[in-house]
Hints:
The complex is a heterodimer. Chain A folds into 2 domains: 101 residues, Alpha-Beta Plaits (2-Layer Sandwich), CATH 3.30.70; 66 residues, no CATH class. Helix content of chain A is 46%, strand content 15%. By secondary structure, chain A is of the alpha+beta class. The longest helix of chain A is centred in the middle third of the chain and has 27 residues. Chain A has a 4-stranded antiparallel sheet with strand order 2-3-1-4, covered by helices on one side. Chain B is built from 15 helices and no strands. Chain B has a single domain, classed as Up-down Bundle (Formate dehydrogenase/DMSO reductase fold), CATH 1.20.1630. By secondary structure, chain B is mainly α. In chain B, helix 4 runs antiparallel to helix 5 and helix 5 crosses helix 6. Chain B is globular, with a radius of gyration of 24 Å. At the A-B interface, strand 2, helix 2, helix 3, helix 4 and helix 5 of A face helix 1, helix 5, helix 7 and helix 15 of B.
Amino acid sequence: MEQRSQLYGLIGEFETVDQLLHAAEQVRDAGYKKMDAYAPFPVEGLSEALGLGRNLVPFITLCGGLAGGLGGFGFEYWVNVISYPMNIAGRPLNSWPAFIPVTFELTVLGASLCAVFGMIALNGLPRPHHPVFNVRRFAERASSDRFYISIEASDPKFHLAETARFLQSLHAQHVTEVQDD
Amino acid sequence: MSAAQPPLDRPANHPEIRRLEPVIAPGHTYDSVTVKISDVVLRRPLGLGWLAGFTLAFTFLMVLTIAIAWLIIKGVGIWGINIPIGWGFAIVNFVWWIGIGHAGTLISAILFLLNQKWRTSINRFAEAMTLFAVACAGIFPLIHTGRPWMAYYMFPYPSTMGIWPQFRSPLIWDVFAVSTYGTVSLLFWFVGLIPDLATLRDRAPHKWQQFIFGGLAMGWRGSARHWHRYNSTYMLLAGLATPLVLSVHTVVSFDFSIAIVPGWHTTIFPPYFVAGAIYSGFAMVLTIAIPLRKAYGLEDFITMRHLENMAKVMLATGLIVAYGYFFEFFMAEYSGNKFDVFLVEQRLHGPYNHFYFALILCNILTPQLLWIEKVRRNVAALFVMSLIINLGMWLERFVIVVISLTRDFMPSAWGRYSATVWDYATFAGTLGLFTTLLFLFARALPAISIAEMRELIAHTSKEHE
């Protein structure tokens, strides 16, 4: 059974950060929603140019930290007071200052694990293949020295010829169709 | 007063003002840093120097496996430890290694939060150094238990015996601190590596390389939405790692200061341990950076500015350590506690006083040469200095562990300690493990963060416009 490849969208290449930022703003202002930019390093101001809002990573990290800290202290309390109480030189069973180091470490551990795995999950990774990798120039240069903007075909404003012209008017080079196979 | 000040818009090449070296040599582009750094991994053939160095390191790693195997067969009796010196080399080495790791986290997290751009080209291998140092450190308490196969008892797991670890013990805090530190360092390192793994995937000439780097990069494509979350994550990890690194050596110092042994039971231990950790860590970063930049021609990225900055950090933390030594003495005398006073006398006149004098020479006196600009800018002198400080910091832990344990409260409990060949073999073996891992790292992963170097180029080219 042969499956016809579908159009994923259009992609254009940029040489400099300034061109990329300018183009990203224009694409956003033109009303496109399903677009993305690609850069080989974190570009300052790109999130704002694309109109990306706050992301969920800090909240997930907070949750992880709280879970680690409260869970850690709660566990120590349960072990030392309820499950396995041990009288050490008559000190109180809930000798909380002694529980703080482990509580602290588990707070950091919970927060860090959630930050990293939260980020990876929200980014939809691992995802070994993505349609943009079908573009040869992208696969060769996107992780090295070129910047890209893609607009998806499923965007309501997308029109193959007009969107391509629009990208070219923003000084995009090598505007290419991206096939989704 | 204001009249004496030079005008603010003075030219950068004013003869009286020494120009700051750039953190990256001029003329580099996104492509040139990508090629230069990734080619070390992807295309450069194995040199004779690398093979010779790796062989030597690997030989010592084999010494480690033999030493540990013999230890497991015979027990900790093969070491020089005894009653009352139950800790010996194992704990000295543990504290030394874990301290070395701290500079990596300091560079990657604290200098990141302080927006110090010069950290960029040294953070990757400094983080690798952290991981390898933690791996070496972790071995010692494990084998020091005598029955390492029972070490899992220290983790809280529901056992059929119905018992739990003692959470009031600093040794259990240590388990949590060190394992958390190892895990978070690994995460931090891996997150930093993801974009570079994608670069290696795209540039790899061989299928198997594409497969391995592609798998590790998880399909990273540099999407702006991904970078958006990535930046938050990196910033948060830096913020989390900063208090973590301070807590780890604090907890390590609690192993000593919570006890009532003279010379250990002091409140100055946590800050002075942390400063000492950073001190020895920066020394180790220099020990690694100087041969690394030479061997792989990375002088453009690891410039004199980096080396000089690291020398300054060593000088500053060395002074904090000196302050710690001084106040150990002062507080002992000032408190009038006869055991503490006696311990001070033992350091100066006891059987191990030569270790103490060597420590003062290595850690306090020699590093004062770093005040001189010529020394800070002399690569060979810095390399020698870094080795001296590494040695000094090892001696510091030896002095702390051994002198206090040999001179307890009662003369009937006094003893002597001398290490055996197996102590030395194990220590040399962990040096072998550390160096082996570094050699492998230098060839298997980019030793400098390529993505961050591109970011640096974007910034510097903007400044020039």
